[in-house]
Every structure is written in structure tokens, then in C-alpha cells.
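User: Second chain of the day. Same drill as before.
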Amino acid sequence: MSVLRLYEDSGLTQIVSRSGDYGNPDSEALLDGTNGGSAQKALWAAVEQTVLDGAVDEEQTSLSLAAPRFADPDYPVIVIDSEKMLITAGHGTSGLTVQRGYRGTTPAAHAAGAPVRLAYDCSSITIECADLFGADESAWVTYCADSGGLPSGSWEAPHAIGSLGYSQSAAFHRRVVVPASTPASYKLDLVHRFTCTIEEHQ
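Assistant: Same format as last time:
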């Protein structure tokens, strides 16, 4: 697993679901497989995050999140404002138990709606499409950079995003090109895949 997630909005609230979870997949419903067709959309890369569902004081060790997050126990450190916390229970739920003031940071009160992020920086980030089974159709999906909300540069895969600090995000664009004479079907085997180097934010 990775600390990075795909989002469908610049506010980083609409997370694209993982492989095997079809709650909110990156989907295109109107591609023409008979004559061939293409579709593109903007996506954002950022570390997994949500917001506090309620305020906390400097002593509380139970957090209520606006959405269930942080399922991977290999990446248990979160940050709210400038305070790091270590998740000790509740991974992948909207109710976390945490150790406050982790890594020597100062416990503090945090307001409802404060961003809660994984406390990890990522470098050498790339994204590409993988086909999990059957004929390899990953070449249908390519990516390019964003400039002012529009695609910029060459469509490619893999696509280099660069580096992102824990509080940063990057916009880019995804394109799907379906060849002509492609039978109509739900394509559940194509997934986006990040590669990157991950380090806890210092």
C-alpha cells in the first residue's frame, strides 16, 4: 500500500476507491467501443487525508473523523496542524485512538474541520495504469501534466509527478482511449498505480 491517494476534486474530499472497492471508482460511462472513443478528466494526487468531525482539546486521545481513513498500519503517523499523533487503534475507521504529541511535538487543541493527514512526504512519484488480469489493455490509459486546469504536455505512461510534501497536492490529467471494435464491457481490471519513495515528515 502507499500513503498517496487519488482524488477527483481539488478540495481532496472525493477519494478514488482502491482496486476491488467499487464505492467510487475512476469511471467513464460513455466511451464508444464500436467506433473508438476517448475521454479525459482531472485528478489530484495527495497523501491520504480527511478532516476532524469534531473539535478536540490538548488531552483527548479519541478522534472523530469526517470519513474512514488510514487503514494501513505500516503508516500510523498523522498530523493535525503542527502536532503529530500515532494511531494506536481504529485504522481504517472514522474513530481513531491516538498517542498525542508524537515525536516531541506539542499537544494542542484542534478545531472541527481541521485537516488530518498522513505525516509522510513522497518523492520520485510516478503514476501508470496496470491491467490486473486478461489481455493487457493498460496502454489505453495515459497521463499528462496540468496547466491552469487544462492538460499540458505529452500524454504518457508512466507519468512523473515529482515530489509532494505531506500537505501538498498535484493536479494532472488522465486520458482513456478505447480502440474501435472493442466489445462493450465493464473494465474492472484496469487500475492506477503509484510508485514513490516515502519518508515520515520531519
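The first strand starts at residue 4 and ends at 7.

User: Great, on to the next one.
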